[in-house]
């Protein structure tokens, strides 16, 4: 997988601090940027500014004014989330958690940052912890990211030895300790309260909200959970200012800053690029990913992970930001798109996806626990040509009953969004799996709305 990070597909030298706040420090050889090199590239300058020249409330206001939104997929305004932490100074035990449990299929953007720029994440967490008055932080890391764990632990040791972590950092009087915690490999840990439960040593089930983590989080204390890419934006915002950051996105974008975006599948140049929010999906697909390989045609695409809906080639005119993708009927998600070529059978693809989502359900609520395996069973029947006409109705009702607001967390709604869009755009492929003799004598499935 090639990883580029410039506005021009092959122009790495054009990368600069002014245009590529997250990736301009990347080495051409792909090796990690360690402390000495990171500091030579203006590393920890923003942390010095935040700790020595800014009050905690000023940092929160700066991030809020920047319009930075969460980069994990939900897109909630980061500064607003920070402002939910209690103002009561007596609550002096607070935690900052970095959600690095990157298990969304077709997503690897956080891995790039952690493996090659570990100090950028550490600096982002240090500034964020100062803003939140958090004395301890945890990087909750996907267990399979062995290289990221090794590089983060080395970088934390370097930062601690240099006085950038620990007690009285930079003589500011602020204390902050940071630890890497590797998870056991469950997709549901990407949901922030399931992550908190897992960190505490509990089963990774989502929690009821309210109370929200800002009030009652890890070990019952105020807690803020942010994604890796979100935290990696913070140093540049603090260092360069709000006006600069808001100028990075395309003028017609409703979001601010840059975003790690990518394309995989049978494209000519799969990879990741740091690009301004608001570019069109067509630019990403054609100018950066190079379009489809010879002999393959684009059938459909997903804009940001397996939990986002399928879109057609004509939807490539959509702008890559949350509002732009919403206009064509789905979510921006992680921003790493998948190109599906003309040889792929959509029933088989959806069966594979729903098997993953069914396996990764925590089993806490009935619609998700029972509905997702039901979708797998139905799709297997259609895939093998043993389906019945009723199966399409079953799938449509499952999409409805597992949709937003019908389940305990967002796992099931994300799982059925691609299913619903695939039926919408490629119904004939599902109908092709119907056996005219199937279902005779079988009792009709009954759905009851609670």
Automatic annotation (TrEMBL):
NDH-1 shuttles electrons from NADH, via FMN and iron-sulfur (Fe-S) centers, to quinones in the respiratory chain. Residues 347-392 form the NADH-ubiquinone oxidoreductase 51kDa subunit iron-sulphur binding domain. The gene is nuoF. One of its GO terms (molecular function) is NADH dehydrogenase (quinone) (non-electrogenic) activity. Its EC number is 7.1.1.-. Keywords: 4Fe-4S, Flavoprotein, FMN, Iron, Iron-sulfur, Metal-binding, NAD, Oxidoreductase, Quinone, Translocase. It catalyses: a quinone + NADH + 5 H(+)(in) = a quinol + NAD(+) + 4 H(+)(out). PROSITE patterns: COMPLEX1_51K_1 (PS00644), COMPLEX1_51K_2 (PS00645). Its cofactor is FMN; [4Fe-4S] cluster. This is NADH-quinone oxidoreductase subunit F. Residues 1-22 are annotated as: Disordered. It comes from Halopseudomonas formosensis. The lineage of its organism: Bacteria, Pseudomonadati, Pseudomonadota, Gammaproteobacteria, Pseudomonadales. Belongs to the complex I 51 kDa subunit family.
